[in-house]
Every structure is written in structure tokens, then in C-alpha cells.
Fold this protein.
Amino acid sequence: MRARDAFRTTLLAISSGSSGDAQALFRIVFDHLLDMGLLRKHPDNYTKAFLDFEWVSRRQMLRTMREWAKNHSCNASLLRSLEEKEEEFERQCERVIAWREENLKSKDISLATFSSHPNMEIRLFNPLAGRGKGGIAFLSEFSRVNHRMHNKLFVMDNAVAVIGGRNIGDRYFGVHPKANARDLDMLVVGPAVQELSETFDLFWNSRWAYPVVTLTKDIPASGELEGFKTQLTELVSASLPSLPYSVDIDAPAMYKRMEESKSDLTWVPIEVLYDTPDKVQSSEARISNATIVLADEMKEELLMEMAYFVPGKRGVFNMKEYVERGVKVKILTNSMASNNVTTAHAGYAKYRKSLLEAGVELHEYRPDAADRKDWAPVAEEADTQLHSKTFVIDRKIVFVGTYNLDPRSKVLNTEMGLLIRDPGFAGQVADFIEGGMGPANSYRVILDENDPEKLLWITMDGQKEKKYRYDPKAGFWKYLMTPFIQLFPIEGQL
């Protein structure tokens, strides 16, 4: 895989054909920082931050766990990425792996089998009590189970963390043959990692987290683990030939590369933002409230990349107010074709005209975005989707995390992210967002001059400008379902 973004640091721009040695990362970074006294010189709200941490480095970090590994994700699929990750966990963990998922039904037995390994423990957040009883149990507990843990956090040894919008699954790492997602992560080392680790513990120890073994009657017998390991090993072995990443470690080469990358390490101020587990009951919108305060600071520009964008009437009013006070507002979100959640697109689409009339610049991600040329060969013809959640204010302030600008993120889901105040870092993320807004990756949505009640989608087809009068390349089913969904009063659930 070729490095796809100019802003990516050398340290983390690990191509798919290479491999990483996390021990080298730990030793070089921390030995160097301690020798230089940097960890003592900087206050607690400063930390290291990097962008777009790739799968290879994330996997190699698992090989060098010494105290504690934490994986906090959602909607994981037992595809190649996850299968190898779980098999690697079983082989390499020296201490405890805490890995939790939410509301998994058919996977309870396999998760319980993994959890039976002495080095692994899995808990589910806010699970369905009547698991296995289908829709009746779901409907009877809807008001509770409708709250999801949407957090994505990966912490190792309380020393290194990965945080952003990415789930664990093939389509989030550019290796799925049918569809893959553009996303954004940050690698963090320094004092902020401890706070991130504490947020994990907050959820892990909450009354909403249940050991998976307590949620299934099919507790694996002692001999089943060995059989399951054998099946998993065979499955992983069969998948490896088609995996475009190397799984071998060339430690000396990686150590040399890390050593040469010291100059790329930059300190930036960071604030950890997160919802608490009791949002299931309280619906306290901590991150949403923080973004409102940030909006008051805007003076010149708001760049936003949001996978799911349902602004509502209040959001449109706010955007119009920003524009009227001189702020240039540019938003990248999914098109009808690229959006994998038709209900979310239905919630967004009815506000497009109002947003454009308010002066907002709208871009929608193409289902054939040029981004896919930088993914694995198996994915170069796959559909493209947008899954990142980030915004930049005045090219000085950056948010990267799990928070979408929609009612679900505001009220229903628990979310988290990092707020970075640094012009240099903000400039890099702004370049990333504007790259996604380019005509090779997205459609520019405008009002039709000849009929202001209608929209036009403008992009480039090679060297030629191309215009569409309807949502491009969406397909019959989405054309049919979008206006149908808009008939129902469900915006608060989107």
C-alpha cells in the first residue's frame, strides 16, 4: 500500500508491504523523551499526537505487550483482520487482554470461548437482557438498549493509545474486496494516555458492562478452547495468502526507521473529551456541549468531515449564523451512494437545500473515490465510504474522534475524541479534509441556477467536468427508500 497522505508522519506512514516493531517505538520514543526530560517539562495536558495509525503498526504493538492491553471498539467482524487479531491475542498476550463489544447476539458463543482463555476477558456494554429472544426482547428494552457505546479506543501498557473513528474489520483497513472506508486515527503517547486508559476503566467497571460468559448459556467446556484454536488457526492460515500486509517482523529495519523518525515527533496540547457510561440513563451531552463552546470561538473557517451528518433545524440555524458572522463553512459527508446507512442519509438529505441557501459549502464523498487507489490491490475497485469524524476551526483547533454531528451522537451514543490546539497540526488535518473534498474524491453540491429548488452534483471525470441532476450512482433501492424514510418522525434516532 502506498503512503496516501502527504501529512502523515514518517514514523506512522508504514506501508502495507512493511511491518512494524512496537518495542522499537516504545524504547526509542520513551528513552529519548526521558533522556531529554521532555516528559517532565510538559504539563499534563500535553501529549504526542499522530495521524492515521495503520493496521500493521497496530498489530505489531500486540506482539510486545508487557503489562496490559486494552481494545475498546465496536461492531467488529470476524473477517481476516479480526480473525488474525484474535489469533494473535491468544498466542502473544503475556498478561491480560481486556476486549469488549456491545450488543453481540450470534457471536456470544465465540466470544465466550475466547473469554475462557486465561489471558483474555471480554465484557459487553449495555447488552440485551433477553439475548436470543429476538425482537420481542429488543422492543421491551428499547429505551435502554438504544444507547450504544460508540467509543473506539486502543490502549497499551498505559503508554500508547490509538483513538479515532475506525472500527476493527476489513473495510476499515482497505482490504475488503467490496467496500472500504476512509477514516482517521491518532496515535498518542505521553500523559494523555493515562486519562484515556481511565476512560476505558470507567466503562469496564461500570454497572453497564457484563462479562460475556454471564450472557450465554452455552459456556464452552475446557476442551472446546483447543478445538476452537485449531479452527481459528486454519481459518487464519487460509486467509493470509490474500492479506496484502506482511505479518513478519524485520525488527532491525523497523528500529532504524523509528530512530530516523525522531525529528517527526511533535508536542501538541490535547484535551480528552468523552461521555460517561451513565449517558445510558442521563443522556448528558458532554461532547456536544463542548462543541457548542468551541463554535463560539470560530472567527474565520470551519472545515468538517462527518460520516453521518444530520444537522436538524437547529444545526442549519447555527450554520447560517456562522456564515453571517464571516465564517467560511465547508462540510464533507457521505453521498447517497457512499452512505452505508440509508436512514442517516435520509435525515441529512432534507436539509441540503437549506444548508446551501445558508451559504454552507457542501461536498459528498464519491462511491468511487480516488482514495481507493491507495488501498490494497484487492480493494482498488471496491466501493468507497466515508467513516471519519473530524473538524478544524480556524486552522488552529482540531477534533478527531467518534462524534458525528447527528442526534444519535448527541443524545444516545457514548462518544469520545481528542481536542488539539495547535496551528501546525490543524493545518495537516485541514489538508486531509480538503483532499477528501477534491473532485477526484467527492461531488460539490450546489443549487441549480436554472431551478433553485433543485440541486446539482459537480465532479471531474478524468479531465472533464461532469454534472448530475440527481444523487449520483445511488441505485434504485436507495432512491426508493430515502424519501420513504423521510415520511417517518425518526430524526431523533438518527
Summary: Residues 226 and 391 are 47 Å apart (CA to CA). The chain has a mean pLDDT of 77. The two ends are 35 Å apart (CA to CA).
